[in-house]
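User: My advisor, Dr. K., asked me to get a structural model of this assembly before our group meeting. I'm new to this, so sorry if the format is off. These are the inputs:
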Amino acid sequence: MAAAVEFAKSPAEVLRVGPGFSLASVDPQSTPGYTGNKADGKALLEAQDARLAELQEKLFAEGRAGSEKRLLLILQAMDTAGKGGIVSHVVGAMDVQGVQVSAFKAPTDEEKSHDFLWRIEKQVPAAGMVGVFDRSQYEDVLIHRVHGWADASELERRYAAINDFETRLAEQGTTVVKVMLNISKDEQKKRLIARLDDPTKHWKYSRTDLAERAFWDDYMAAYDLAFEKTSTDVAPWHVVPANKKWYARIAVQQLLLDALEGLDLDWPKATFDVAAERALVADS
Amino acid sequence: MAAAVEFAKSPAEVLRVGPGFSLASVDPQSTPGYTGNKADGKALLEAQDARLAELQEKLFAEGRAGSEKRLLLILQAMDTAGKGGIVSHVVGAMDVQGVQVSAFKAPTDEEKSHDFLWRIEKQVPAAGMVGVFDRSQYEDVLIHRVHGWADASELERRYAAINDFETRLAEQGTTVVKVMLNISKDEQKKRLIARLDDPTKHWKYSRTDLAERAFWDDYMAAYDLAFEKTSTDVAPWHVVPANKKWYARIAVQQLLLDALEGLDLDWPKATFDVAAERALVADS
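Assistant: The format is fine. Below is the predicted structure of the whole assembly, which you can bring to the meeting.
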């Protein structure tokens, strides 16, 4: 098998949200940093699965040995953008024992009676773990802004609270990878219709999807503002063009690989006398 | 590719713990109900991954649509018996979004200040989910019996409490699959030595493994008693010979497949007018 076509430029750089960023400047159909085609992308995804799994196991092993390192992937997107596919096809390559997926839906009455970060804090990954947030604290500055459930000053409080929260996570040893999967409004229409045309997918369709779709432009504005306020050095945002599912998957895979590589992970050294222990086992 | 060699007899039957069962009667090297060899077993495992994943997705989908069905796999075993391998190689075929793995280690001070089922209850799977317990409430009648941390009357209370608890789970819609992975004492020695001979596995070795190994016969007696007291009609035990990892994996896979098949799962029907919704999306 030929070597897989790799990224020419790192997604961590080309997809990173910097000052002055605007969603309007990104083509959801594009494949930044990658010159390969769909077949190349699929081959790359598969070729890197084992590496991703090994890095995750090392992270888990270090956690057992006392390291505080952990990883948190935050996924935000409009409906049908492919969050679920990222979790099953990218994160799914890791060992399920070391991964904790948290899907944040409409808050319960109890959750609503607390500050918005209360339910989030309970789901942050423990040392050695990979946490995945399918939606997150950002709902509280996205859907809440779009529908006016929070006023301007409350939104400002939340942006600042999120930045404080993520700074604290980073100080605790958490590498935070924030990803917005960016599909076009036309692509969403195609995917919603495809769901409706497939009886095995009807359960994924909700009439509220269509209601939220009507606020598309407001959501884009809310995302742009959230990026401006919360794409920080400790926890930058990445906007991943997602009309091509295969591209979104390799881009997120590469972001995870880069994040894990950056942790300088290794198998923990034995804290006991290996030869002595081996002799004891052999005699047992 | 030739069709995979399937089980000649159902593991749910041949591995089920019935009246008068004794661990001494099971050969950990055997492959009950399966006539194929290692290569056949590996091929079967892979061949059935997609079916397992589809059933799990249907379970998840039904949960979204209001069904109370859920699945709980309880794994108990001596160290190195392969619990982790079952989770990563069998459960790992399912979508990580629909699976919740809970590893029960030595209880915290807070957990100890509650009844033994307190921490267990918090980890039972929600509707539509597959829960996996890596160790479980059974530690409280196994290690506690072996080391005399609970006296005879307290152990009796716990067996009864466990049966009440599992009956309640079943009444709530939970299918409970209880598995003890059964390795021989010699096989454990080989595996402990293999861990010590591989620096990438040192983190998996604990000096307490050797201490517990010294109580092997007491553990076997504690397991036999636990089986006698808690292998019920609603939640029977299955003892899976586990010296051959490939066999243990296909046996547990088949137990999960049978459990899920028994739930008569299907894709939920749409609760909305599909054609009308499609027209609205097309116009949006």
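One thing worth pointing out at the meeting: The beta strands of chain B are 70-77, 99-103, 130-134, 174-182, 237-241.

User: Perfect, thanks a lot.
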